[in-house]
Amino acid sequence: METVMSVNEPTSLAMPRRRVIGAYLEEARSECLRYMRAPGFMLPITLFPAMFYLLFGVLMAKSEGTDAARYLLASYGVFGVMSPGLFGFGVSLALERDGGLLTFKRALPMPPGAYLLGKMLMAMAAAAVVILLLLAMALSLGHVTLSPLQAGALLLTGMLGVLPFCALGMFVGTLIKGQGAPGMLQLVYLPMSFMSGLWFPLPMLPKFLQQVAPIWPSYHLDMLAMAAVGLNKEALLPHVLVLVGFAVGFLLLAARRLRRNG
């Protein structure tokens, strides 16, 4: 009986705490290295928002003043950090499910949360790269003036704000096959960005889109990013709560599908 119980114990309980922590760290390190060494993943998610910001936030916003460049820094920063969450989780999870890698990882003597933690840290690191690149362009080319506290707040907002999109990407990755994941996520990513006012200010959009904008998590993250750069003075707690609820909800849905369907 004692032997059977020890076999059925979760790995995280059977392993010494030092080995459990080491497993988390090693999985996180390998996951980050895998994506950082994949130019097909890193280049689009960093260069795409940078190109948009250079065109609209630096070149075309010069005549509008520094507030326009500051506004677009926040909105294109949100547009940029959505990508590693959606595609880093969604596409990779769908491909790994198809290839059997996820099943293989479940059979390994490692804590089950290490897989998710590694992908989350990868997405947060990629989001940090996006925000730092946009900040460098805004401060040097866009002549945007930010205090160190504002720049740090925008960086922190981007790194934590990627997590709800990780949950959404994870859920989508449990629904479709690997080859269909990029196209499906594009159908989520681009319309959501447009309807949240990330490409154009919401007052420039039709009235209907202005009314439905708050249903998108990107809208609430944009409000937090605007506050980080000093352009939004309204209460932030409702936006934070919506993003937390969105992340928890889609994470639970994704975990349920993974338990049922693998």
Q: What spatial form do the alpha-carbon principal axes imply?
A: globular
Low-confidence stretches: 1-13
Gap from first CA to last CA: 30 Å
Taken together, the total number of domains comes to 1
Proportion of residues in extended strands:
under 5%
Structural class, judged by helices and strands?
mainly alpha
Compute the number of strand runs: 0
User: What percent of residues adopt helix (DSSP H or I)?
Assistant: over 70%
What would you report as the Rg, rounded to the nearest angstrom? 20 Å
Number of helices: 12
String of helices and strands: HHHHHHHHHHHH
Largest sheet: none
Mean pLDDT: 82
Described by its quaternary structure, the protein is single chain
Descriptive keywords:
mainly alpha; 0% strand; disordered N terminus; globular; 12 helices; 262 residues
Give a structural overview:
- With 262 residues, the chain is mainly alpha-helical.
- The protein has one domain (16-261).
- It has twelve helices and no strands.
- The chain has helices at 2-8, 11-14, 17-36, 39-59, 66-99, 101-107, 113-140, 148-175, 181-195, 207-212, 217-228, 237-261.
- Helix 5 (66-99) runs antiparallel to helix 7 (113-140).
- The protein is globular and about 60 Å long.
- The protein starts with a helix and ends with a helix.
- The model is unreliable at 1-13 (pLDDT under 50).
